[in-house]
Amino acid sequence: xxxxxxxxxxxxxxIKAVALKCRFCNTDLAAFAATKDVETEKxxxxxHPAMMYTISQFxxxxxxxxxxxxxxxAVQSHAVQSKSRDGAILYTILGCLVACxxxxxxxxxxxxxxxxxxTTQRIKRERGLLSKKQESLELFRIDHFEFLKPFGMRLLGYxxxxxxxxxxxxxxxxxxxxxxxxxxAETLRxxxxxxxxxxxxxxxxxx
Length: 207
Fold this sequence. Notes:
The chain has helices at 29-39, 59-78, 82-112, 151-155, 181-198; strands spanning 5-7, 14-16, 43-47, 114-119, 122-127, 133-138, 142-148, 160-165, 172-176. The chain is α+β, with helices and mostly antiparallel strands. The strands form 3 sheets. The protein has a 4-stranded antiparallel sheet with strand order 3-4-5-6. The radius of gyration is 28 Å and the shape is elongated. The two termini are 51 Å apart.
């Protein structure tokens, strides 16, 4: 086969490399390539949700700091000896730091235990650290998108996507803590309609 020739992807016959239509099977090569491109599954997002995605998650840190300040003030007011007072304040500060570290570790582990893989055909969610549970929601099964922007999430630049589907196991499916979720949601809408059309489904979809 010469450099200016190629094989037809449908019938396999040799045709010109610049050909727009196969002269053997009469296939429109541009339309065929576009169809194959649509059928190819592509990643839109793959990763863990953000460790901190809403302002309310900072509340435990504020509570710990407030308690540490209260304990420190009480110790300073009732201490008699300067040495014991300084030691108690030091322990209070260390206790505050340890408590904040434990809270941060909790949020980190919770984020690490969830993994999203969002593609042009399905949404996969894996949960767990040691024991894993994998869940998959096909886009053509999604009936309705609900995009939520709570104030606490908006302050950190995040949002939540609520998906309603015809899948009995995933009637309500939530995606949160994902960057650029609004743009991903718009892409998912287009992909959902395309997947329904590709499968010949004409069910009415809510806006």
